[in-house]
């Protein structure tokens, strides 16, 4: 009888995340002890290794969870081995991806007039797109540049409680017009959003409604003439 196993895991590894490996065992009557090891060496020579061991029953699946710390660029691989019901040993290269956080920048409007106030917030999510609770250990740097690229305001070493930072910029009566840029930097990654500052006049609409001034209870239909311009 042919015994076999199946291993499923991401092709990339990210810093400050959890690396999951799913292992299933087939065509055996005995449990298998599976060891998953993520190891590698960074470009500066630092050696990294993280290991997890689980026991997989026949015809079932288990997940190995490997904690990934603040690793840097380098060569990494996943080593997977099993003993017991199915004996095996294999290693697979994984790619390093330096994106441990995602930042979404939201503004209350897309276009702002001179003298108005830009309200914005930055929402920091982890690699699973969940609110990053661990972001309290990371500092944010937020910069705002005008339409000519001049830095007009900045926040340094900001601690975003619960992964959210809220800020505002008061525009002068004669600001630089054009696309203003809001950028957020965390853990060496920069995310940005552009908003427009322009002089504009809100369009005015005139609505004229012509209808009878009086109606009786016997009349079931109201006829009106509506004109807009």
TrEMBL record:
For this UniProt entry, what's an example GO CC term? extracellular space
Quote the InterPro entries the UniProt record gives.
A2M/Complement_sys (IPR050473), MG2 (IPR002890)
Limits of the Macroglobulin domain: 103-197
Q: Sorted alphabetically, which keywords does the UniProt record give? A: Glycoprotein, Immunity, Signal, Thioester bond
One biological process term in Gene Ontology: immune system process
A Pfam family cross-referenced in the UniProt record is MG2
Gene Ontology molecular functions: endopeptidase inhibitor activity
Superkingdom to which the source organism belongs: Eukaryota
Subunit structure of this chain's protein: Heterodimer of a TEP1-N chain and an TEP1-C chain non-covalently linked. Forms a complex composed of TEP1-N and TEP1-C heterodimer, LRIM1 and APL1C; the interaction stabilizes TEP1-N and TEP1-C heterodimer, prevents its binding to tissues while circulating in the hemolymph and protects the thioester bond from hydrolysis. Mature TEP1 and to a lesser extent full-length TEP1 interact with SPCLIP1; the interaction is induced by microbial infection.
Q: What does this protein do?
A: Binds covalently through a thioester bond to the pathogen surface resulting in pathogen clearance.
Q: What's the protein name? A: TEP1-F
Q: Which organism is it from?
A: Tenebrio molitor
């Amino acid at each position: 009888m042919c015994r076999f196993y199946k291993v499923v895991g991401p092709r990339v590894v990210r810093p400050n995340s959890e690396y999951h490996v799913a292992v299933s065992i087939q065509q055996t009557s005995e449990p298998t002890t599976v060891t998953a090891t993520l190891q590698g060496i960074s470009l500066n020579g630092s050696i990294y290794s993280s290991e997890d061991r689980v026991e997989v029953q026949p015809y079932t699946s288990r997940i190995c969870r490997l904690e990934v710390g603040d690793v840097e660029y380098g060569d990494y691989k996943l080593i997977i081995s099993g003993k017991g019901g199915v004996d095996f040993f294999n290693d697979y290269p994984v790619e390093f991806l330096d994106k441990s956080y995602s930042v979404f920048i939201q503004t209350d409007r897309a276009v702002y007039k001179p003298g108005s106030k830009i309200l914005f917030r930055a929402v920091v999510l982890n690699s699973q797109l969940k609110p990053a609770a661990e972001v309290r250990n990371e500092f944010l740097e937020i910069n705002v540049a005008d339409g000519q690229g001049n830095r007009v305001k900045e926040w340094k070493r900001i601690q975003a409680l619960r992964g959210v930072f809220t800020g505002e910029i008061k525009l002068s009566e004669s600001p630089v017009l054009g696309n203003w840029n809001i950028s957020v930097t965390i853990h060496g990654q920069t995310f940005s959003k552009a908003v427009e500052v322009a002089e504009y006049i809100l369009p005015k609409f005139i609505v004229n409604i012509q209808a009878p001034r009086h109606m009786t209870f016997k009349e079931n239909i109201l006829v009106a003439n509506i004109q807009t311009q």
